[in-house]
Amino acid sequence: MKAPDRRIQLLLFRLGQVRFGVPAEQVTGLRGFGQAAAAGAEACWIHGRLGFPQAPCYRAPTEAQVAHPDRPPAWVVLDAIEDLQDVALDAIKPFPALVQPHALRRGLWGILPGPGQPVLLVDLARVLETET
Amino acid sequence: MPPSAQPALGLRLLGEIQSSVQAQGDAAEAEEPVKIVLVRCGSGRYAFLGRDIREILNVDEIFWVPGLPDCLPGLIQVRGEIESVIDIQRLLGEPGTGTGAGPHLVIMAVREAFHSGILVDEVEDVVDVPGSAFQPALITLEPSIRNLVAGEIRLGGRLVPLLDLQQLQGRVTL
Question: What is the CATH number of domain B35-172?
Fold first, then answer.
């Protein structure tokens, strides 16, 4: 008998022209843009930490609370949140060998191939540890 | 990598090619042809060993990934698999070809641990050349190219740099 697929829920979003996915279990809250500042906290813009050479145009920013195993949760700004997508782990590919060392340094750990534009899977807790 | 180390590295693949031919026996067999893929990238003309090139692809789009060096313009999807793409013009210090919507011409190169697409402007020809046409890279070859070649091939009175995939890999993953 075939073992059931191991699956993961991804929260899909965009930064500029790039599609990203983050494991939904890593995001513990979502709220409107600007609410972190109103509450005296600061939401982190992650495009620099991901390696964008300049800030992409944010069209529909949302603040997401990110759980971290060793630190208090932090808020980050995501753009154009699309959907929650349930995918089989088997569908996720590692980055090609030449790209992987660069990607891992930025918290990017896998790819969900298209159709169309692939989704880059990101560990937001790792991104929060990286320098801009 | 110090420049003094280059001749030994550059000769490695050349020696492999020549020894595989020379192992056949006498001088006549040393003329056994080796298949070469000739490409044009920017202002330069380069060669790859034919055995290292798996296919030539017309790619609709190269998907940019943040955080990669300029010589890695992004990823392509080939029959559901994700492959990297190297822009050798960037490695050679020339302006890159660019990413995004294509079409882009990509040759898929595979040799030992190296597995990647390479962005080219044109595949000029696939030719058989005798083993004797291979020679070490000239000391006068531009340093940015010299660090990436295994040697040169004499073709029609001109020398064409033979690019070494392992050298490319080393530069890209620095």
Answer: 2.40.50.180
